[in-house]
Amino acid sequence: MTGMPHNAAPPGKQMLSEQVHAHLRDAIMRGDHAPGDALKPQDLAKEQGVSLAVVREALVRLVGEGLAERLPNRGFAVPPFSDRRWQEIAEARKTIEPAVLRMSVERGDVDWEARVRAAHHRLVRTPAYLPEEGEHYSGAWAEAHRAFHRTLLEGCGNPTLLETFDRLWIASELARRWSAHRNPGRDGAEEHRRLEEAALARDADTAAEVLVRHLTLTAAGLTDGADRAV
């Protein structure tokens, strides 16, 4: 009879860790914990009715996703909303994503083209703002936005690069949710249309150029939002 690997977590503990991770991730993304707030394992364990080990495992995963930071005294905290942090994330995205998009344009097949078109259609047809969401992007639009950008890159066929995109996206999405505000001078829908058009036309140079500008404008908006974040 084959036993569990020596270092594997028991199924029950693993399920609890997944649940606590999902709960904390959603809470941070919703803004329930303000930038810089301490994430105290003892308090979280009591709140969730789980062990310290389960909470610490969930917090370590959040650190890997860029949604939490380790403190020098081995505690955890929500990342501070600093211009430098978000500009570093933006710089990483502007360096990596255009290169991956070029690969995707060169390698993507007909199925990839269909997925890009479908993802863009969903993005266009999803309202960005809902009355109950105030000035912040709606959750449905945020997911459609993520799906469109990820689908554009999926033609690269490289899971490691896509995992890098996922980590950077989560970190930048946190900044967006803290600073999201309407920018009447920017036409994001047109930027997305041009991205889809260039990608499906197999024009890697134009697609990469449009993406760099798109990310640059997003970074500028986050810088503005950093001044207003609470």
Automatic annotation (TrEMBL):
InterPro entries: GntR_C, TF_FadR/GntR_C, Tscrpt_reg_HTH_GntR, WH-like_DNA-bd_sf, WH_DNA-bd_sf. Residues 14-81 form the HTH gntR-type domain. Pfam families: FCD, GntR. Keywords: DNA-binding, Transcription, Transcription regulation. This is GntR family transcriptional regulator. It comes from Streptantibioticus parmotrematis. The lineage of its organism: Bacteria, Bacillati, Actinomycetota, Actinomycetes, Kitasatosporales.
